[in-house]
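Let us practice reading a record.
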Amino acid sequence: MEYNKVVRAEFISRPNRFIANVLLGGEEIVSHVKNTGRCRELLVEGAEVFLAESGNPSRKTAYDLIAVNKNGLLINIDSQAPNKAAQEFLPSLFKGYDIFPERSFGSSRFDFYAERENSKAFIEVKGVTLERDGVAMFPDAPTERGLKHLKELTAAVGQGFDAMMLFVLQMKGMKYFTPNYETHREFGEMLQKASESGVRLLAVECEVTSRSMDIAGQIPIIF
């Protein structure tokens, strides 16, 4: 997936989760942040960031903040990017399947649904932006929604469906992926239970540039 008209800027501050003050060409402007997560370890004063022009003249903010340079590691923080990258990647993973966006099961609405004769699968995508010492982790904040998704994917397996949680690392070069037990232990424990119950877990890293993000390959998951 690619962006159009990307520019470099310097992060100043984040007054709320929707906007950031950045320095662009010597002028302080307000940019939309395409991620409502904390991103505290990324959005620090003075950080190099990249903005994509929105192309919508009626918007209050002309740019979207999409990526951050964290000590030489470029991390995409656009919360919509993982699904777009997954949509391009899933046909190679589910060969021979018809793949559809968004399908409900129970009280959840999963990101993708794949179907072929005698096989039906729900796929939930989680974007990963948290990195510590070369290890990718999720979540970066407690996620009751993510916990519910795991429980319902497990229930789907119990009813004869295939199910997958796909972690899309919005970065490259990590040693492995692991649940962030420190932030949400229940999610980590449920992730392991879901795997043991037949939910397929997959973590993939991405080739990230200032103007693109594409899935590059799998990395290990360690509990």
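A brief commentary: The CA atoms of residues 154 and 194 lie 6 Å apart.
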